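fyi for ur records
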Amino acid sequence: TTYYATQTVNGLESTNRLAVSVTLNTAPAAPSAINGSLHFCYSGGVQQFSTASVPNASSYVWTTPQGATGSSTGTNISLLFSPSFQSGTLTVLAQNSCGQSTPMSVVINQHLQTSSTLNVTTCEPYSFNGQNYAQSGSYVYQGTTVWGCDSTVTLNLTISPIITTNVEATACGSYPWNGQTYWTSGVYTDSLQTIAGCGSIVTLNL
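which gave:
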């Protein structure tokens, strides 16, 4: 506002007045938000973050998380993240000659490309990524994670077929075999399981 000053001498006030303009400044309000990707994949490039301008702010103070490099006194900041960075807090506040605002903070997260190996031993054809595989071998799937990062999965597949075994035996009187006792000559078959849990057919020629 504007104030007016006069001078009084011997009870008489001056007719001229001195106009004094007064501007009252206050510390700025806190930034309303930080804009930018809160989840992103490591690429070796920079990530951009920004905040909207705050009335009466003359500059901004950014506090970056450990593992991020960058500085700014404006409403925008470019950050370069190391591959080891996973998660941290980015903060910004507004300031002027009267003081600083309360800070605005967000948690940002960096995700890396993934690589994994899946070892499978089965007796039947195996379904992997929508494909059925009937032969042993290594199969690679290239995709993306939920955050859009590269993902590689290698399937090492071993398919164990049914094993057929013939046993020749000659005995006098009787012959014990797999919990049974046989008294006459003949051909006998038993179904078993291998260590891998697959079928195994054993034929006894007695």
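DSSP finds no helices and 22 strands in the chain. thats all i got for now
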